[in-house]
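Worked Example 4.2. Consider the chain below.
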Amino acid sequence: MQSLDLSGYRLRYVAGLYWLLDITQPGVPYQKPVPLNETGAEFFRLFAGGSTKEEIAGMCCREFGLSKEEALQDIEQFQMDLRRQGVRI
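Applying the procedure from the previous section yields the following structure tokens:
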């Protein structure tokens, strides 16, 4: 499985929230930063670091006792939510 290229995004922690910023956008139309919770921020860091969906699912299984199917479903939902907000993931 191929890793994702997320080099055009930066994750920042401001005012108690994580924000995903598109640093390649031209400005018009303006892409608002996407707020992420702790789990979403960790998923983003892992994807940006080159981890695959399957590797992240394995980590979720170990850390949280999820089944592989549950973990993959959560990760796919995270990706769909980001796509709906205009993130190229």
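The chain has a mean pLDDT of 90. The beta strands are 9-14, 17-22, 34-36. Compare this with Example 4.1 before moving on.
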